[in-house]
Write a structure and sequence with these properties.
The structure holds two protein chains of two kinds. Chain A is mainly alpha-helical. Chain A has eleven helices and no strands. Helix content of chain A is about 70%, strand content about 0%. By secondary structure, chain B is of the alpha/beta class. Chain B contains nine helices and nine strands. The chains are: A mainly alpha, B alpha/beta. Chains A and B meet through helix 1, helix 2, helix 5 and helix 11 of A and helix 1, strand 1, helix 2 and helix 4 of B.
Chain lengths: ~280, ~260
């Protein structure tokens, strides 16, 4: 009774106005967009060079591989010319993949304070990395355009092909793959910190196990290497990106393998994420 | 029964429960410093280093009506903050469930969402947005938030350059302006100078007067008695007593002083 009397003193008459209710998916998209915007904001306001940093990495790598393979070893086949465009069509998507997977390792740990204090759907931490790195990837595409235009003034110009219409499929597949791997990696690293280093090693290996500095068409379809490469989902994804400029790059069987594998990884990711998220919240 | 008492009872029955905890339980590892290492990933489960676990909370059930101010009492490490985190949905229970109707404004680690490299202005939009406010809502309340925190001159200063007092002030200001019907408070009031502390207290009084529900964790007897009408007494992860705040505080004092 004491408590009720005390409450009535408190003029309960003024009732809190109900807030405009927003659906769960609206809240999700709203939070995802805010965090993605935050990532890009931090990235572009804290460094003087801003945008340049996000293209500098693939640009420098392209320069190095161009020097090694074209200038030093004087290699190059007719199907891979101009080599700089050949490199960048795969290096830019690789930068998206590589950057995202590296960041996934710290997805929860870096945001521990925010996760402990704010109720946000937990999968956002994986989605926001995929999205912000994906936007950086799209923003880096003009660099490729510049190299294509430059190649028009060389003996081996690059021509855009009809297969470029499949590029959105490659972007979608790559996003599915990154989200799936992220859902697996992000929670597990919270318990096994050394996994972060293991991921860096695997990524370095994967770089060479993916047709980036070389093309898939250089192996004939019965060779053992081709079978191993086909098993890598990035092989199919890269073959789509590359087919925008290079005939004979598109490898539908590899694309089908990539689609199946990406979806399976996403499925495993969703299951593992659900199982682990409770423990992750306790551990942070 | 007095007229006032009858009115209060009528009002109480008309209200619906906004927080319902049903048989809540959550387990933690006792040895929290222990991190599993890489070898454990491949070791057989029997050989794996498995630290013993304990229940931080178990079989905790209660329901809070709209407009109630509930204080959680207990010694350190008896599950008070964990209970608050379960209600705030930043932790997931191992047993039972907690249902919260309506939005929550959590004054838990309030500076958590703030980003060092962004300006105060950007941070206000970010944090309020993550707690569910839309851009027009934030714009409407922006001046109010800044004047409450009293840091008008530092709007475009990066957050990391603020003094620690200012950081807490702006954070409190943002979270306490969320138009959510439920307020969760975890001893944040211990920080800031006396003047700001008084301001925070007045703000909480204001919110309670406007019919908000509050869930309050504190060690300060004075604060508990000032704000709360009802108390929950937690000991060793169990809910020992659920009653009027004075009764709960007396019981706590009798047990531990």
């Amino acid at each position: 009774m004491i408590s009720e009397a005390k409450q009535s003193e408190r003029r309960v008459s003024a009732v809190v106005a109900p807030r405009r209710e927003r659906s769960v998916s609206q809240r999700y998209r709203h939070s995802l967009w805010l965090l993605t915007k935050r990532d890009l904001q931090v990235r572009y306001t804290t460094s003087a060079l801003g945008y340049v940093w996000s293209i500098l990495d693939p640009l420098l790598m392209s320069a190095i591989y161009y020097f090694v393979f074209v200038v030093v070893f004087k290699r190059g086949s007719a199907t891979e010319d101009p080599y700089i465009v050949f490199l960048m069509t795969a290096l830019l998507p690789w930068t998206w993949f590589n950057g995202s997977i590296n960041d996934m390792a710290m997805a929860f740990i870096r945001e521990a304070k925010l996760i402990r204090s704010t109720s946000i759907p937990r999968s956002i931490w994986v989605m926001r990395i995929t999205l912000s790195k994906g936007i950086e990837f799209l923003l880096s595409l003009p660099v490729l355009v510049v190299f294509v235009i430059i190649s028009e003034f060389t003996p081996t110009p690059a021509h855009i092909r009809f297969d470029a219409v499949y590029t959105p499929l490659a972007i979608l597949l790559e996003a599915v793959l990154i989200v799936g791997l992220g859902l697996i990696i992000a929670p597990v690293v919270v318990f096994f910190r050394d996994l972060e280093r293991a991921i860096k090693l695997v990524l370095r290996l994967l770089f060479y196990a993916t047709p980036i500095v070389y093309g898939i068409s250089r192996f004939d379809s019965s060779s053992a290497i081709k079978h191993v490469l086909d098993f890598n989902p990035l092989t199919g994804i890269m073959s789509i990106y590359r087919s925008s400029f290079f005939a004979g790059s598109l490898d539908w069987p590899a694309v089908i393998i990539a689609s199946v594998e990406s979806l399976v990884i996403l499925g495993i990711g969703i299951l593992m994420f659900r199982r682990n998220v409770r423990a992750v919240l306790k551990e942070l | 029964m007095t007229q006032q008492g009858m009115l209060a009872t009528a009002a109480a029955t008309a209200r619906k429960p906004v927080i319902v905890a049903n048989d809540l339980g959550i387990q933690f590892k006792r040895n929290r410093r222990h991190r599993r290492n890489f070898k454990d990933l491949f070791a057989e489960s029997s050989r794996r280093a498995r630290p013993d676990e304990f229940w931080a909370l178990r079989n905790v059930s209660f329901s809070v009506q709209s407009g109630e101010a509930v204080g959680v009492v207990g010694r350190n490490g008896q599950g008070k903050s964990t209970l608050l985190k379960l209600v705030a949905d930043v932790m997931i229970p191992d047993e039972g469930r907690v249902a919260v109707t309506g939005g929550v404004a959590p004054l838990i680690e309030i500076t958590g969402g703030f980003v060092d490299d962004l300006s105060v202005r950007e941070n206000v939009y970010l944090t309020a947005g993550l707690h569910g406010m839309s851009v027009p809502e934030i714009e409407n309340r922006f001046d109010e938030i800044i004047s409450f925190a009293d840091i008008g001159d530092f709007l475009d200063t990066p957050y990391k350059h603020l003094s620690s007092g200012m950081r807490v002030r702006i954070a409190f200001s943002v979270i306490s302006r969320l138009e959510e019907p439920i307020l969760l408070v975890d001893e944040v009031l211990a920080v800031g100078d006396r003047q700001f502390k008084e301001k925070c207290y007045n703000r909480i009084d204001e919110l309670l007067a406007s019919g908000r529900t509050m869930f309050f964790v504190s060690h300060s007897e004075a604060d508990l008695l000032r704000f709360c009408t009802r108390g929950l007494y937690l000991d060793k992860g169990k809910l020992i007593l659920d009653g009027p705040i004075q009764e709960v505080v007396d019981r706590y004092n009798a047990d531990y002083k």
